[in-house]
């Protein structure tokens, strides 16, 4: 079975500080995408960052960056200079390129930002 | 350009009833996926429609069915509702079946009593 595991149910960070969310996944496929999605209380999933498995360079989007370790099947998200608006549920997900748009999600990590 | 919209926002049904949830895709998108998100969990893939045909399904029973219309709007139908069907139902649209980016709607909260 293909699974995504987020071992941290909740993380707390001080405003302007850095927090890292962990994610591990299990797949026998070699060609896939990895994603981090943010779900605020409004419930709408928002794409934060994506990584293509064949690219060794870690993706970066402004204050968000990933540490992709393909051999270890690890895909962590680092949020730098945390802002109050970053408070939300964060979900790690992957998609096998040959499986259409099916996303497999982890259980999520709640991020709390303290002012 | 309008985003993905879903209706209704909230819904309360009784066990055994049937329900229809609706999704309007983002303009120009021909693929829609539906997900079920139980409270405190990550979303689970139900199925995907591409140009009005189902072309991928998750581990959900046949009482979960769908439709996609020529304008690419979509419906999710659930028959014989069970208490465990209580969840947030999300739809996501994309430009095509192979697009890496999906745009999610705000979801429909279904409560089965």
Question: Would you kindly provide a written description of the structure presented here, covering whatever features stand out?
Answer:
The complex is a heterodimer of chains A (115) and B (113). Chain A is 0% helix and 52% strand. Chain A has strands at residues 3-5, 10-14, 19-21, 24-26, 32-39, 46-52, 60-61, 64-69, 74-79, 88-96, 104-105, 109-114. In chain A, strands 2, 5, 6, 10, 11 and 12 form a 6-stranded mixed beta sheet that branches. A 4-stranded antiparallel beta sheet of chain A has the order 3-9-8-7, with no helix packed on it. In chain A, strands 1-4 form a two-stranded antiparallel sheet. In chain A, strand 7 and strand 8 form a beta hairpin. The radius of gyration of chain A is 14 Å and the shape is globular. Chain B has 113 residues and is mainly β. Chain B has no helices and 11 strands. Chain B has strands at 5-7, 10-13, 19-24, 31-37, 44-50, 53-57, 64-68, 74-78, 87-94, 103-104, 108-112. In chain B, strands 2, 4, 5, 6, 9, 10 and 11 form a 7-stranded mixed beta sheet that branches. Chain B is globular and about 35 Å long. Chain A binds chain B through residues 4, 33, 42-47, 50, 52, 91, 93, 95, 97, 99-108, and chain B through 31, 33, 35, 40-45, 48, 50, 55-56, 58, 88, 90, 92, 94, 97-102, 104-107.
Structural class of chain A: mainly beta
In percent terms, what proportion of residues of chain B is strand?
over 45%
N to C succession of SSEs of chain A:
EEEEEEEEEEEE
- Principal-axis shape of chain B: globular
Helix and strand run of chain B: EEEEEEEEEEE
Total strand segments of chain B: 11
Helix content of chain B: under 10%
Rg over alpha carbons of chain A: 14 Å
The overall pLDDT average of chain B reads 93
Question: How confident is the prediction overall: mean pLDDT of chain A?
Answer: 94
Major beta-sheet overview of chain A: 6 strands, mixed
Largest sheet descriptor of chain B: 7 strands, mixed
- Give the largest chain-chain interface (CB within 8 Å): A-B, 24 and 28 residues
Helical segment count of chain A:
0
Net shape of chain A: globular
Structural class by SSE content of chain B? mainly beta
* Oligomeric grouping of the chains: heterodimer
Strand % of chain A is: over 45%
**How far apart are the first and last residues' alpha carbons of chain A, in Å?**
41 Å
**How far is the N terminus from the C terminus of chain B?**
38 Å
Rg measurement of chain B, Å: 13 Å
């Amino acid at each position: 079975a293909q699974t995504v595991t987020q071992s941290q149910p909740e993380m707390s960070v001080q405003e302007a500080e850095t927090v890292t969310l962990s994610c591990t996944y299990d797949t026998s496929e070699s060609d896939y995408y990895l994603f981090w999605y943010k779900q605020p209380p409004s419930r709408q999933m928002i794409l934060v960052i994506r990584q293509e498995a064949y690219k060794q360079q870690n993706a970066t989007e402004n204050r968000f960056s990933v540490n992709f370790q393909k051999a270890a099947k690890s895909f962590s998200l680092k949020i730098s200079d945390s802002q109050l608006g970053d408070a939300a549920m964060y979900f790690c997900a992957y998609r096998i390129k040959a499986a259409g748009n099916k996303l497999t999600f982890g259980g999520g990590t709640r991020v709390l930002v303290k002012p | 350009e309008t985003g993905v919209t879903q209706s209704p926002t909230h819904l309360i049904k009784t066990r055994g009833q049937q329900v229809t949830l609706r999704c309007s895709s983002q303009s120009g998108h021909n693929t829609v996926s539906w997900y079920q998100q139980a409270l405190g969990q990550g979303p689970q893939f139900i199925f995907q429609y591409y140009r009005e045909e189902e072309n991928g399904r998750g581990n959900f029973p046949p009482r979960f069915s769908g439709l996609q219309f020529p304008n690419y709007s979509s419906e999710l139908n659930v028959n014989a509702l069970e208490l465990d069907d209580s969840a947030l139902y999300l739809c996501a649209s994309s430009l095509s079946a192979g697009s890496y980016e999906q745009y999610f709607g705000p979801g429909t909260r279904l409560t089965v009593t």
